[in-house]
Amino acid sequence: MNVLLIGSGGREHAIAWKLSQSSLLSKLYVAPGNAGTDQIATNVDLNPLDFAAIGRFIRKNEVTMLIVGPEAPLVEGIVDYFNDSDKFEGLVTIGPRKAGAMLEGSKDFAKEFMARHNIPTADYKSFDSTQLKAAKAYLDERTPPYVIKADGLAAGKGVIITSDRAEAEATLDDILVGNQFGDAGSSVVIEQFMEGIEVSYFVVTDGDAYRILPSAKDYKRVGEGDTGPNTGGMGAVSPVPFVDAEFHTKTLNQIIIPTIKGLKEDEIPYNGFIFIGLMRVGSDPYVVEYNCRLGDPETEVVLPRVKSDLLHMFDALGSGMLSEYDLQIDERAATTVILTSGGYPAAYDKGLEITGLGNIPDPKEGLILHAGTTTKRGKVVTNGGRVIACTGLGANLERALERSYKLAESIDFAKKQYRKDIGQDVFTKED
Ligand code: GLY
Q1: Ligand 1 mean position to 336 CA, how many Å?
Q2: In the CATH hierarchy, which fold is given to the domain comprising 2-95?
Q3: Domains 2-95 and 124-191 alike in fold
Q4: What is the dihedral of CA 347, 348, 349, 352, to 10 degrees?
């Protein structure tokens, strides 16, 4: 099978790494990929939003499966583009159509969906740019901290949480009138703050059958102790010790099954991943957000724990046979620590030479996954804010973290930064 994977982050390197182990794989292309995917697949210089160019590549290279990593092409309708054209008959697409991707593409759509299907989430109200006064007045109905979310895709920066009323009002001005997030901020959701601890669930579904991948916890803030601005994610751990059988059963019955049933009732076809960001409040799960793809850096700890063949799973998903697929999970723990470029998530340098990538760990103990990297004149250099994911595997989180941090120390580039406290809030010696 010839496969084209869209994306260029640590998530896509992890997917490519897993696909490259499959007996079904003939040729793997990654567009545009990074220096890591370049070592195990063929990188192709294609813009993920240029569907016509992707189509020409698919036909020329007899690609039979298209896997979409990031959300932007899904929300822009890449799956509709290929599924609705008779030129691409037989092409299996992994990822939802635009209608399903709206679970991530519009916070208001997701909130209405949850309200319609009685899926637990924070109370909320939506406002567009003509309703600035009403939006500010609604803050009176909420107890601080105020949670304000730009409606559309805002690269992880569209959620503002503040206890300061003046700052909340200024945020509404910036988003609704000042156009801070462009079209993504033409409306906002204001919701009740939920006090709890977050966990990410990953469900793959064809709209009927589903499989649940290992859950994970990511660390979004740049600074230790969850301080400083939000990032794409500074590290992740899996499993998440507080996800016990009772919490899992509640999540399954109150959230996962109603979500899949709700999509069906609303006649929204879905063929791909649903990433459910949850808050455990007391002992109950509440949805913080839906995403229409795998998480990053969560994928860098979730896929190393999947024992079964990922391409077989995608093949089953594409042929309506997901219900027959036997998903096997490795009991070991996986952790990842993200090496970032100094200054991230604000301005940072690119093109810095990365050393130590030859310190490849025993595959049973970990792996180096590239995110923002590229090759220049034969050298691997930084090409983004998040540069390398140092994934460790071990009998428990403590052992996996030791291995992640050993890797994090052995890889170097100018102004390297990473959090030293990944996982410390959730693990005990027994985990
Ligand atoms: N780690 C969060 C995300 O992928 O959106």
Answers
A1: 14
A2: Rossmann fold (3.40.50)
A3: no
A4: -170
